[in-house]
Write a structure and sequence with these properties.
The protein has four helices and nine strands. By secondary structure, it is of the alpha+beta class. The protein has a five-stranded antiparallel β-sheet with strand order 1-2-8-3-9. The two termini are about 25 Å apart.
Length: about 160
């Protein structure tokens, strides 16, 4: 039971710390969000990180709401099989040598990221388009001040 708990905790740490995003201002009220997430997060994890980052960056820029104008995604995940080895065991019984060889595959290495890019337009109350835009604070939920302060480090 303890081994299972340690393994689950290790997986949570690996998934939990492998996501992030950057924002680039492209005009006074537009921004590009580039988000990446670990292979274990999947494309959905990268999308969640990008969406939350759009809300965070909207608030940081002094706006209240945003519209996602376009989105793109890319899967840069790859899986490699490392070389294996052959283990041979044998024994001499009388005048006969008997052996068994077993192939042991090498470890599988998963690398790369799931990436998502969003182009957003930001709005303040009273500006045209405000009423159709997503509320950034609502998108982040009641913990929004803490999320804006600390950023996103997980795809969960």
């Amino acid at each position: 039971m303890m081994k299972l708990l340690v393994a689950a905790l290790g997986c949570a740490v690996l998934v939990g710390g492998c996501a992030g995003a950057t924002a680039t201002r492209t005009s006074q009220n537009t921004m590009t969000i580039d988000a990446g997430a670990a292979p274990s997060c999947g494309a959905l994890g990268a999308a969640k990180v990008a969406a939350k980052s759009a809300a965070i960056e909207t608030i940081k820029a002094g706006y209240d709401r945003y519209i996602i104008g376009s989105a793109a995604s890319q899967n840069n995940v790859s899986v490699s099989q490392m070389p294996g080895s052959v283990q041979t065991r044998g024994a001499i019984i009388g005048n006969t040598y008997r052996s068994t060889s077993t192939y042991v595959p090498g470890p599988t290495i998963v690398s790369g990221t799931h990436d998502r890019q969003l182009e957003i337009m930001m709005f303040r109350e009273g500006e045209p388009g405000y009423e159709n835009a997503l509320d950034a604070r609502e998108a982040l939920g009641p913990e929004w001040p803490e999320i804006v302060k600390n950023g996103i480090k997980t795809c969960l």
